[in-house]
User: Fold this.
Amino acid sequence: MIHIPGCTTHLSVILDGMVGKRVVVAGGWAATVLMALVGLMLLLNPAPPVARVDGGSGAGKPYVVKIHARWCPVCMMTKGVWDEVASAYSGRVNLVVFDVTDVEATASARAEAGRLGLSAFFEEYSGATGTVHVLRGSDKAVVGSIEGSRRFADYRAAIESALP
Assistant:
């Protein structure tokens, strides 16, 4: 259980769904500010769209996997660099976004990870929002991780090291 003093019941329900734990909150001015910030993040920070990875055409290509949540401030700050990565490497790598915003999105992401043969990866790394991981295409081993960087060069170095 998480207790946040100074918050409203609406925020409690939102946070319950996002963190998967019971959140107890009480009213106050801090609640209004916190609820506004959470609401803004939920509206402005959707998971970036990527093409569905096809088993045939994606075979052997490295995976570049973003662990995303709408409530994650790092995810919001790195949206621009993810767009650069997607633009530069689309077609050369398998771009995957696992959205772990809430229980429903996480279940969907877990199913997609299973379809891609990334279940073990998902279970180990799905709690690390705001990170991008590069996996070797042949055995899906993690060969690089970028945590919250807004520098394209950091992503390029990790991805290039996994390309044949």
Observations:
- Confidence is low (pLDDT under 50) at residues 1-21.
